[in-house]
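2024-03-11 09:14:02 INFO worker-7 job=invfold-0412 stage=load source=structure_tokens
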């Protein structure tokens, strides 16, 4: 986002990063991203809302200077202290040591670790607290777990403008500020959904609370920290409807029990099919599909795992370990909502068979609920092994009734 006026006394001063393709190691950003930040000038005081990623600090400072001298800023509001927004705080404090930093209680604790400083003015705000800038009042709304414990929203009643940080954001970069200028809406939609899944998917109940907070406001502009500013006549209602849809509690229906596996020579695959048959026998209405992990997009597999009621996962042992796609799938687990999720492990091995123990340790780390010990066979499963695999699946299915 280049420097642009949002409305009277409010400017966008963030950074465009159209070429970014990976964010926080784990998120792909096919359409780049923006690190948004906003200056709010009242008749008496000036506030900066969100800071920026340390890597872009010098350019960011130039953007601020296009509106005011950084030494004139009285407050830095950090709705969320993740380093893509707070990474530049220490440098900003060097330039303006009189700056008063405003954050939630949790944010104030994280800031000490992020800046490695305690010698600056720091004000902790809570739900309903406000700061008067002169003709503009910043009111702070608690919005925890959207998406860190520190998160809050800042509402400027006079301009009907809310600052939501990551909430309703998207890793999406076009050289425009407002949503009604988006040139590639389909691409934006993909980025918006991907962002929701990765960042807010684990916190549906908090998302619903966040939406309630926003619905109570008469919003003209929702200034997020990534992607375009959302407007009343543009995409604001639509984005909120999408969040409501995606965060809605799941309707009760048939159980979903996917069986994931990898198999070099078909041995673990045979076990997967038999375990699935056993689960189906115990739960005739359940949706029990088998998935060879190298034949499906990992994002789809991860979404299925995260949405499952229970699941099975199998790997052969290669080089004393489970295989990479299985680890990759487990690295995408929504650890918050998958705690206590019932799971079974299985796999074929040749001589040492470490896959099972290694995966078991990982599932325990994820606090999942492992049903029985992993089901293992040596090399090619015999008729008896396959019968036992089916019984194993059946017992697992019965435990889910
Ligand atoms: C490259 C490679 C490395 C292997 N390393 C191990 C190993 O470290 N320990 C072990 O018990 N088996 C090892 N095996 C044997 C496989 O686990 C065994 O062949 C198993 O039956 C393969 O099952 P699958 O057909 O489901 O892939 C290895 C096999 C291959 C191809
Ligand atoms: Fe964040
Ligand atoms: Fe962010």
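2024-03-11 09:14:09 INFO worker-7 stage=emit residues=401
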């Amino acid at each position: 986002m280049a420097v642009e006026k949002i409305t009277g006394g409010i400017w966008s001063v963030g950074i465009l990063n159209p070429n970014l393709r990976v964010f926080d190691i784990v998120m792909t950003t096919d359409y780049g991203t923006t690190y948004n930040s906003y200056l709010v000038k009242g008749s008496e005081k000036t506030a900066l809302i969100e800071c920026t990623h340390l890597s872009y600090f010098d350019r960011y400072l130039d953007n601020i200077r296009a509106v005011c001298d950084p030494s004139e800023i009285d407050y830095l509001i950090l709705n969320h202290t993740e380093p893509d927004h707070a990474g530049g705080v220490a440098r900003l404090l060097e330039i303006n040591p009189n700056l008063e930093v405003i954050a939630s209680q949790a944010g104030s604790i994280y800031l000490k670790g992020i800046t490695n400083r305690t010698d600056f003015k720091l004000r902790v705000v809570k739900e309903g607290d406000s700061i008067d800038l002169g003709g503009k009042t910043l009111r702070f709304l608690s919005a925890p777990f959207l998406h860190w414990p520190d998160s809050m929203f800042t509402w400027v009643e006079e301009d009907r403008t809310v600052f939501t940080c990551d909430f309703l954001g998207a890793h999406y970069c076009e050289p425009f500020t407002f949503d009604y200028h988006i040139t590639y809406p389909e691409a934006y939609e993909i980025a918006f959904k991907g962002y929701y899944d990765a960042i807010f998917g684990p916190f549906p109940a908090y998302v619903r609370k966040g939406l309630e907070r926003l619905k109570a406001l008469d919003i003209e502009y929702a200034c997020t920290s990534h992607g375009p500013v959302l407007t009343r006549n543009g995409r604001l209602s639509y984005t909120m409807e999408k969040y409501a849809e995606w965060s809605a509690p799941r309707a009760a229906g048939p159980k979903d029990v996917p069986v994931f596996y990898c198999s070099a020579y078909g041995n673990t695959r045979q076990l997967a099919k038999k375990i699935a048959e056993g689960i189906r026998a115990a739960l005739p209405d359940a949706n029990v599909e088998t998935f060879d992990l190298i034949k499906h997009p990992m994002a789809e597999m991860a979404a299925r795992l995260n949405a499952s009621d229970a699941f099975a996962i199998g790997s052969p042992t290669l080089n004393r370990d489970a295989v990479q796609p299985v680890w990759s799938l487990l690295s995408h687990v929504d650890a918050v909502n998958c705690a206590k999720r019932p799971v079974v492990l299985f796999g074929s091995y040749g001589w040492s068979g470490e896959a099972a123990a290694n995966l078991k340790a990982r599932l325990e780390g994820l606090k999942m609920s492992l049903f029985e010990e992993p089901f293992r066979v040596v090399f090619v499963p015999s008729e008896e092994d396959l019968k036992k695999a089916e019984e194993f699946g059946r017992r697992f299915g019965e435990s889910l009734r």
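2024-03-11 09:14:09 INFO worker-7 stage=report msg="The mean pLDDT is 97."
2024-03-11 09:14:10 INFO worker-7 job finished
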